[in-house]
Amino acid sequence: MAINIPINQMNAAKKVCGEPVFTSDINLPNQAYMKVLFSKHPHAIIRHIDTSEAEQLPGVLGVFTAKDVPVNEFGFSINDQPVLCGSGSTKPFADRTRFIGDKIALVVAETKEIATEALGRIKVDYEPLPFYDDPFKAMEPGTTLIHPDLDSNILLHHFIRTGDTDKAFREADVIIESEYQTPAQEHIFLETEGGVAFIDENGVVTQYVAGQWPHHDRKQICHALGLPEDKVRVIYPEAIGGAFGGREDVSVQIILALAVWRLSQRGIRRPVKISLSREESILSHGKRHPYHIHAKWGATHAGKLVAAEAKLVADGGAYAFTSSMVASNSLLSCTGPYVVPNAKIDVYIVYTNNVPKAAFRGFGGPQGTFVAESQMNKLAEKLGMDPVKFRMLNLARDGDLQTTGAPFPPGCSIAQVVEQCAIAGGWENADTGWQPKKYSTLPVSGKPHIKRGIGLACAHKNVGFSFGFHEFCGVTIELQGGEQIEKALIFHAAADVGQGIHTVISQMAAEALNLPLEKIQLIPSDTLTSLDSGSVSASRMTFIAGNAILEAAKLVLEKWQDEERPAIVAHKYVGPPTTAPDPKTGHCDPNISYAYVALIAEVEVDTETGQIHIPRIICAEDVGKPINPKIVQGQIEGGLIQGYGYSTLENFIEKDGRVVTPNMSTYLIPTILDIPDEITTLMLEYPDPHGPWGARGVGEVSIMALAPAITAALHSATGIWFDQFPLTPEKVLRGMGKLDRDG
What we know:
Layout: H1 12-17, E1 32-38, E2 44-50, H2 52-56, E3 60-64, E4 96-97, E5 103-109, H3 112-119, E6 123-128, H4 135-139, E7 154-162, H5 165-171, E8 174-182, E9 194-199, E10 205-209, H6 214-225, E11 232-235, H7 253-265, E12 272-275, H8 278-284, E13 291-299, E14 305-317, H9 323-333, E15 343-351, H10 365-383, H11 387-394, H12 414-424, E16 428-430, E17 433-435, E18 450-462, E19 472-481, E20 485-492, H13 501-513, E21 520-524, H14 541-561, E22 567-574, E23 594-606, E24 612-622, H15 629-648, E25 654-655, E26 658-659, E27 678-684, H16 706-718, H17 729-735
């Protein structure tokens, strides 16, 4: 057996010993260096760019602007972003900047120092335009269009209409109506954006770069440069220093390819390397979407939900990035894993002149979950009902309908997950119903200003992109040997962004082929050798890749039994279909699978300083079948710590189109001294009918429900509901009425 074994990640020792495994470790002979000139204005027309002084500087090999890009556009879902902003390209309105991270020019030089000096010699003539840092202002009629080829600054509107909410609210016994705000969040992955590109002996533009979907990177490079796919090769390194969704969108891939391609046309065949500084990284890559949400929920005295309405407005920033998928997930998560017979939900994502907003662990789910779980906890309080009991009355079971009109996917285990979490947290299911563990607001250790409380929340998170996207994954398996299989080569494009997917793929291949793990050799993340695997995101890769490997293993073993030596199979797995929303109701069958989680947070709050301390988190998560329990444990705990930072500490601030927190001295993330004292994990195994060996996707769901669990605990301690976060000391004190708005 090769699965359900807690082995270390394959490159763990190299990482610990500091051996080269990351993109930034790669250096090629005779390489040159590239720097980027970023915009000085959040919104402006570029009237002229003068690069003459920069080009004359000794050691400068090339300066490139918009006129050097054949097809000056790119984007994950729609091509709404120029590769370089300025005149001279065929893309309409590429002559303007839309946020301060827009790229204006590239300099390639013998050294980084020369390239940096050359940037200072480039003269740009800007004509500033009105800018918007508030989505509500950007939505107003008559505002300047950030994308003049569109009719408004509203990027998208997704919605659901189910039942009759007006009638249901008239019949509801209790109604809770609230306003919520969730913040932006910066990924702060360990390794900033960077890469090395060169032209190989066959004239192929080749690059080592960090991303989450090499074939999609190649597609965008080819589009922008007007090259066929066989002329571009993207290779991810053995390990990538974190992603969390922040590498789904192209960063340096196109500009690296552009630089070496244009230099080669001038007879200069030199590798080119770039590595963004931390500040450049923060200013230029997408962040988690901040949301403003109005929610109205109703229930009966018996504790049954009857209706939910919500209007969600999110700041999408300057470009679309992955906003459509984020909006879809928040559309579902804002009513939680509950049976809601009447629903009216609207999600708007709006273009602004802020940094673009993008995928971030949970993909819109944490924002929606904060609303759903806060509403559930408030309704339970108003009904005088235990929050576990109230949830158990409304949680979905197999066969129940989602707000989209389709049944929850088979294997719906959220009720069991909540039950196990509650029991671990001290609840008892007595004859009179669920009875909670009592937390006192009495002094802690003789300190009357420190209060304590406990809070509960739960969530579900989909596997895959969904909403009509047909999931797929390619894998190639080659069996080598004579009488016996001596080696199995696995060619797979999945990016290992720290989550250990290369180890998990090797384990699944060994299991499917009935071989010891030492006979498995993985050749990963290279568009030349691997079929398209889809993105390493949306909690999909273990789930989708495992199914691809199972099918391919069966086919290749049949060839081996027919005495093909070597036996080779290149196979594409296609997952169960999902459907796109109905244009009138939003109804659809959105997802093939969910992961489920329930959380209890124990909180102590200093009412004099506003400081929050978390002695313990209890996390129950249905993982289906842990392919590697050690890696799954790491994913759960990592998600919780990231969720803790999101909830209490990380405060990304944008004002007047500028980033106020552009480095790690102003944007704080949790250290080992900040994290909860204790994390108790319940790794539950309710097999997913569609998952390989019953496995579910686990990468994101643990982050989903921590914020509402913490705010529920704060309410338990103080009697106050906190409807926005991060719960910095200032926000906590202000919420308790101990600071005025300007205090």
